[in-house]
Amino acid sequence: MAAHFPHLLDPRIHPDDARRSVRVPTWETFEHTTGFITLRDLAQSDWREDLERYTEQFKLGRVIWPLLNLLHCSHLAEVLDEIRRRGLYLFDLWSYVPGSPLEGAWSNITPPPGMVRHLQRTLGDRFLGIDNGEQDGRYVWATAEQQCPRAQSRFAQYLSFQRHFQKLCDELGNHMTALTSLTLGHYYLKEGNHVLLGAETAQALPNSQLYYAFIRGAGKQYGVHWFGNASVFNRWGWKDYGAEKRDGRYRSGPEEGSSLSLLKRLLYTHYLYNCVAIGFESGWLTEEPPYALTPIGDIQRGAVEFVSRHGQPGVMHTPAALLLDFYSGWVPPRHLYTPYVYQVWGGMPYEAGDYLTHGVLSLLLPGYEDASYFHDERGFLSPTPFGDMTDCLLSDAPLWVLRQYGLVAAASALAMTRELTDKLRAFVAGGGHLVVTAGNARGLLPGLAVDGAEGRVEAGGGGGGGERGRAGRKCGSRRARRSNGATARSRRRSMRSRCAAPPCPPARRCWPGAASWPAW
Fold this sequence. Notes:
Elements: E1 35-38, H1 47-57, E2 63-64, H2 76-86, E3 89-93, H3 115-123, E4 127-133, H4 135-143, H5 154-172, E5 176-180, H6 185-189, E6 194-202, H7 208-222, E7 226-231, E8 237-239, E9 246-247, E10 250-253, H8 260-272, E11 277-280, H9 295-310, E12 320-324, E13 343-344, E14 348-349, H10 352-364, E15 390-394, H11 399-402, E16 407-410, H12 418-429, E17 433-435, H13 438-444, H14 466-475, H15 477-497
Parallel strand pairs: 1-2, 1-11, 2-3, 3-4, 4-5, 5-6, 6-7, 7-11, 8-10, 12-15, 12-16, 16-17
Antiparallel strand pairs: 9-10, 13-14
């Protein structure tokens, strides 16, 4: 088993490429260099000047990220012609929020009939989808809360999640780019209608290393590239260099929002993560003429020049993978989109396997769960002792994907189907290293004794009977009793955490005023 997989992702050799309903971009689409994302609106009358200003005068990037209402503008045909003439990319048309009014920045606007097909014909692979933006967070925040009765199995919760996003993607034309706000991106890519996967980092959102462990794993598993974005917002305001603005209790200013240090570090880590496109959320230029780069724009312009001089960073070294059960629905123990803690799928309490996932990630990314909760910005980039070396896969990952890693660790409670056990055995037989807990080992190796005072594993599979076996039990009895006690306590905690009937569980606020916060 190779210690390092030396190849960048190539969607064209992935088995799903011919089966997807959309054609996903490759490194060739991006001319074998990292693209930069800029310019969030083209609906205004001076769109030509803005396009020239952002892409040519200040050279902030060539991946244009406008509002979805562009598709209803009378000058759309001219915009598309200009994008095609300049060799730009139309990326992640954003602002759709189901159930919102038809007007305003966040709205219920959908593409006109036939529009998605028109964009595909006009721009080809350079049409980079319509935004499935932060919708996993909104699902947890609102839709999952409205289940009545609330599904009590992970399989049923997965079906509820999929039904919601099938309807959402149908309304938007099934040519999607996902900007995740939690760790559920695998389920989008599996459907075959997403062309890119990424996350908005900083803001009031999870740790960036955690995000991209899941995003890279999903991309490699399903053959779809990923992008990077860093937000100027945090829980208290947003960074801006114009006149002060207010949105409720949030306010703008040069000292508000994400620090310039965090923004710069996030941007360059996304470059090192092999994202095909990277950039900031906003704030590149001053608002009034004569236009000039802000400190935010300086950072992105500097990154553009750095990539132009130095090219690609090579293949990111991720020799280890964490394997989670396909139906786990795991999300961090606390996050923006709910006042409750330790839940999966937006309403099911953590069980032992979910705490295992959190524990393993805490070992790799110490303090990751602190992201966004403190003014000192701890948790967004953890001081990991091992480097950013791990991807997160789901248990439906094929054997050839597992073989891209030297080590795979089972990081949740796995449903040990015959298919999965055969796959894991073949991975080990081919030279891979597999780390499993006792609970998962029982399913992988039927008959293995791991519980109680009888719990021992004989080296080499020998019988190990007679006095040697009795001595082993005697010497280990005190340890076994401690183990039994820990198991009993764990079971009691597990029983307390289970909910007898919906709704569940009782409210536990993890920060003041959480229930009143919007799903940004």
